[in-house]
Structures are given as C-alpha cells and as structure tokens.
Amino acid sequence: MINKAMGVVNLIHETDELESLTATRCPATVPFGARYRLIDFILSSMVNSGISKVAVFAHTKYRSLMDHLGSGRPWDLHTRQSGLFVLPPSSDQIHELSRGDLYHFYQHRDYFQRCKLEYVVVTRSHMVCNVDLDAVIDYHESQNADITVICKKQADLLGGKTRKVELGEGGRVKDMQDHFGNMDSDVHSMEIYVMKKDLLMDLVQTSLAQGQDHLVRHAILSRIDRLRIFGYLYEGYLGVVNTVEAYYRTSMDLLRPEAWRELFFRPGPIFTKTKDEPPTRYLEGAKTGNSLIANGCKIEGTVINSVLFRGVHVGKGAVIRNSIVMQNGVIGDGTQLDRVILDKESQVEPHRDIRGTAGLPFVAGKRKTI
Amino acid sequence: MITEGCVVEGEVSRSVVFSGVEIGEGSLISESVIMPGAVIGAGCKVYRTIIGENAVLEPGVMLGSPDGTEIGVVGSDEKIGRNHSLQEVQQP
Predict the structure, then answer these.
(1) pLDDT at position A236
(2) What is the pLDDT of residues B46-92, one digit of tens each?
(3) Same domain assignment for residues A42 and A90
(4) What's the total number of domains in chain A?
(5) pLDDT tens per residue across span A311-329
(6) What is the pLDDT of residue B90?
(7) Is the pLDDT of residue A116 over 80?
(8) Are A141 and A185 in the same domain?
(9) Which residues of A touch B3 (CB under 8 A)?
(10) In the prediction, which pLDDT does A366 show?
(11) What's the CATH code of the domain at A332?
(12) Cβ separation of B4 and A282 shorter than 8 Å?
C-alpha cells in the first residue's frame, strides 16, 4: 500500500445526460447498484489503494453530495490529518461557474501546495470501476511517464460516452478525442489521470496564463507531443454512466453474476454510506429471480431482472421486470412495471401498467406519484 | 428474511438468511436459519436446520425432512459432504 498520492474527484462540467436523474443532484450522487452512489466506486478504489487524502471538487447541485459524503467515515477518510475535503466553487460571481476546471484548480492551489504528497490522481465520478491505483502508479514510474491515463479496451460501452484514445508503441498516447470526435478506436479514457503534483500545478498556471481553462481538453491534449503521456490498460469491470441509456443498461449488466463479482469484490470492496436497515422480508406470494435487492424491502409480488434499492415496497400481485426502483419506492398492488426507472420515493398506484423500451426506459423523477 | 450480500440461485422459504451466504442453483432451503458466510452447494435440500457461520454444504446434501420435528444443527466452519448424516445434538 502506498501513500504517496492524493486523490481529486473532479465534478466540474461532468458529461451529464442523465436527464431527470440529475434534476436535483449531481451525477456523483446518482444512486446505482441497489445501495451505492456513483462516486462510491472511485472513492473506494482510492482508499483501497492506500490514498488517504481526497479532495472532491463540488460544482453545482451538491447538497446531496455533502449529505452522502459527510465526514468521509464510510471510506475511513475521517482522519485528523488529510482525509476528505469537499472544495466548492469559491467564487462570488455567478458567471464564473461556467469557467473550466483549471480555474477551480487554481482557486484551490493552496490546498495542493500545502500537501506534501508527490502524486495526484485526478478522476471523475461517473466511471463505475474497481481499480488498483497502486499498480497504476507503479506503471507510471516504470514508464518514466509524465502523465498516465487509465484506459479500457471495450467494444460496447452500453451507451456511455467517453473520450477515445489511440495508443501507440509501448502504450504511449498518440491521440485523444472527445466522445463526439470521429476517431475510430475501442480504447476509452476512464478520465483517471496520474501525474506529479508539481506538474499539475505547472499545467494549471501555464494553461491559464495562455488563456485556456480545461485540464484535459486544453492543458493535456495540447501537450500530447511534448509530454510523455501513457495509457494504462485496466482489465476489470467498467461501466460509464453518464447517459440514461448507459445508466439503465449498466444496471441491467450488473445482474450478470460475473459482472457483479468483478465490480464489487476485486481488487477491494466498495464502501458506501451505511444505513442500518432490517433485512428484506419476502412475504407470501413473493417471487424473485435474477435481481439485486437491498435491505429494508418488503416484497409481496414478483421481481424479475430488476434492481431494488433500500426500503422498496412491492405490493401484492405486482410484477416488476427489467426495472430499477430507487430508495423507498412504493409499488401498488397488481401494478406491472417493465423497463422503468423510478427515482427515490416514487409511488405507483395500484393496478397501473407502465412500460418503457430497452433504449428508452420510462423514467419517473424523484417523489413523483404515478 | 434475506439480508444484503447474499447470492441466491435456489429457492428459499420461511427462513432467515444472514449476510454473505451463497445458495447454489436448484437448492431448496425451508424453515431454516443460515448464518453469515455459509455456502450451500447446488441441489441441496435443507429443512428445519440451523447452519453455522462459514459452514460449507457440498452439492447435493440433504438435511432434515419436510415433516420432521427435529431441528438439525451444523456447527460453524463445518464441511458437510454428500454422505454425511446429521448426528443428534447432545444436550449437555
């Protein structure tokens, strides 16, 4: 276990096409996988890799983020020194919110300068993965790289949007393009960048002084020829959750036992905010198959190929297929759901029949009654 | 009642299943208590039995009977093979 890196979860201008799922929250705290939030995966990867100092760049709609992270106790980040820092935009002018992430790095430069760790791992929150960053830093050092970006070779991303990467000989990054670019490559950037802290600070100041304000798009991409940028190929499970389609299809993908085992246990466990709920009760008439069901549920109907979060109540004779029901959802007696995403605390009245399609699941916003 | 962290590929009725239990394909668990971390192989039949922590039942094990009145107990960390018959618990 190393402790020579600090982590940054950069939530500024994250690609967000999650529509009503992010109406009241940022992508980082979108509930995922029956009991987690998206940010849990990268935070857990960091602490499992021995990183004990993590900064989260909050940007907009971060109330639920503050609530979820709290003191950082679930990730053992509630230490006296280092630990978890949530860095909100420290601006008094509203239009500054639209400026790029380099500007925020610059505003919080004191935080970085005060820190004595050698490396920084800059990440996003929408990558559902379980990665050993220790091995990445070893790779970074062995390649004598300036920047290492973690990549994943995968043909189908289930609707997620990523930067594409072209790797040359020895893993050197030859080119990188935003998701809408024409580049034809099945290597995707996981937006996890490892570099020396001094290099990051230098990039921040130089690029800002050149009138540029995006870390990856400007500071890194414009220096692909000058810096030694390497791609580290990650072998584990990856879900890129930044569109509704990707959210739905990645959730359904987790119902494959191999995907579930790979994501939740290797190389380390995924931690989340603990809620002490009683075990789920399966009452008379309950029938479940191929589903992820969290604690605190009460099931009196049929649940097949679905993800139920904590405290969901499935009424008598209700049939839920291929759907995702978030915390405290109430499904009335005899209701049929197929390909539906219900946000937190939704209610579906008895004897309704709601259906979406695989590419376009029906999504109900938080606290809606149907 | 089934808590988080279990993998159930068989059938469970009227039972309490603790965290981290794995129940193999085609198994039937009825009126039983399964403690944390126990692994039940495929095709097992378990009636009216208490299974201790981290115990392992190999595939195809039968314990108890549907209309039996006795309650079987498998100790913690025990490994039960296919030809095992449960011994009566001695009262101290």
Answers:
(1) 87
(2) 888 888 888 888 888 888 777 777 777 787 777 777 666 555 444 44
(3) yes
(4) 2
(5) 999 999 899 999 999 999 9
(6) 46
(7) yes
(8) yes
(9) 279-280, 295
(10) 85
(11) 2.160.10.10
(12) no
A270 assigned to some structural domain: no
CB contact under 8 A, B1 and A257: no
Closest CA in chain B for residue A310: B4
- Do A293 and A239 lie in one domain? The reply is no
In one-letter notation, the amino acid at residue A315 is G
Are A218 and A325 within one domain? no
- At A279, the pLDDT band (50, 70, 90 cuts) reads confident
Alpha-carbon distances, residue A231 vs A160, A183, A302 (angstroms) = 20, 17, 45
Q: Are residues A261 and A321 in the same domain?
A: no
Spatial CA neighbour of A192 closest among A129, A280, A114: A129
Backbone angles phi, psi at A223, to 5 degrees: -115, 20
Predicted confidence band at A192 (pLDDT cuts at 50, 70, 90)?
Answer: very high
- Cis ω before A88 (30° cut-off from 0): no
Higher pLDDT, A353 or A96: A353
Q: Closest to A35 (Cβ–Cβ): which among B2, B4, B16?
A: B4
The whole domain housing A139 covers 5-265
For the sheet containing A298-299, what is the strand order? Answer: A281-282, A298-299, A313-314, A330-331, A347-348
The token duo for A22 is 């992010």
Write down the mean pLDDT value for chain A.
87
Is the domain of A219 the same as that of A345?
Answer: no
Interface of A with B in 20-39 (CB under 8 A): 35
Query: Mind giving me the DSSP string for A14-50?
Result: ---B-GGGGSSS-GGG-EETTTEETHHHHHHHHHHTT
Note whether residue A180 is domain-resident.
Answer: yes
Any B CB within 8 A of A281 CB: yes
ipTM of the complex: 0.75
**Per the domain annotation, does A168 fall within a domain?**
yes
* Chain B contacts to A (CB-CB under 8 A): 1-4, 7, 12, 16-17
Q: Write down the pLDDT at residue A88.
A: 84
State whether A92 and A163 are in the same domain.
yes
Separation of alpha carbons A135 and A114, rounded Å: 26
Arithmetic mean of pLDDT, B2-12: 81
Residue A195 placed within a domain:
yes
**List of chain B residues whose C-beta atoms are within 8 Å of the C-beta of residue A271:** none
